[in-house]
Amino acid sequence: MARRAKLILQAAAVLVVALLVALLGWKVAEQEEGRGLSAALERGERPHPPPLTFETLDGDETISLADYRGKAVVLNFWASWCQPCKKEAPMLQETWERYRDEGLVVLGIDAQDFRQDARRFVERYELTYPIAYDGNGKSLGRFGNTGFPETWFVGRDGRLVGEHIIGEFDEEQLEENVQAALSTPTR
Amino acid sequence: MRRTALICALLALSLAAAAGASEQKPTLAELERELICPTCQTTLELSNAPIAERMRSFIRARIAAGDTKSEIKAALVEQFGERVLAAPPKKGFNLLAWVLPLAGAALALGLLAFALVRWSRARPEAAEPAAASTNGGPPLDPELERRLDEELARYDG
Questions:
Q1: A-chain residues within 8 Å CB-CB of B60?
Q2: Which of B50, B54, B80 sits opposite A136 (nearest CB)?
Q3: How confident is the model over B41-76, as pLDDT tens digits?
Q4: Min distance B30 CA to chain A CA atoms (Å)
Q5: pTM of the predicted protein model
Q6: CA distance B144 to chain A (A)
Q7: From residue B76, how far is each of A48, B23, B72, B84 by CA, in Å?
Q8: ipTM value greater than 0.85
Q9: Is the distance from CB of A116 to CB of A40 less than 8 angstroms?
Q10: What is the Cα Rg of chain A in Å?
Q11: What's the confidence (pLDDT) of residue B156?
Q12: Quick check: B110 and A142 in contact, CB under 8 A?
């Protein structure tokens, strides 16, 4: 009886440890997925971005990257408290206005921010491009982002293209990557 | 006995009153210890990140408006999700984070008690032969004792 109880306890302990290891593995794999995206782009590969769905800043709809299949997307992660984001916002708005008829979408993802601060930011910079809200910043890890702002470019075929820009971009860098995204084939 | 019970009751009452006061009139310092800065993953009190500063100003405004601690935390959870809380809420899946350590401690105590009981039962049986020793020392091995008797008999003979 005591031997049986001992075996059960040992099995339970092994099970708990196995579960913890699996949990750790899952977390590490998720983080590696994001880090891998940037590295793959640097190697000249064109990986798919994580299939994420966000709620809009107004909270009444959802936005998914899959919604923009066939269009080129500038994916800009920002927050209202981020200083460089304030410089980028007018450039992004201008790019959106200039290329939207050619099939470009600028998608701003406001993360780790107060929703009302983000709304004020949008009003202040008169942004009309779609803005998604990711208050708890879950998407940041999936992309391997480490700060704000960070910008990715998605081609018309739904794959990442160009550079992963960490930090503030300049006009030339933005233009170059927008052209790269617009010139990708639909499929 | 009655005095101890009275002291315990008074202590429990004063702790409950303090917890109630903290809930109704929270301070920035205690909320800073109970909330996490989303960008740096440390408690607010340890962070000087821009979002931490913004969260502090939000908390100050809510305290001034007379919000309770739970209301302030709920408002922040709505913005940043449950990861903004330093301790997980005691409900749903998060309850495991509270229950598992307690269950683990209880299990460890149970196992320790079980082992102690078994050990204390086994000890007198093992110690029984010691009663045979007359000089207070450890009992001799029977084989050694037999050989010793033979040697003594030979010596006497």
A1: none
A2: B80
A3: 899 999 999 999 999 999 999 999 999 999 999 999
A4: 21
A5: 0.71
A6: 35
A7: 33, 16, 6, 7
A8: no
A9: no
A10: 21
A11: 80
A12: no
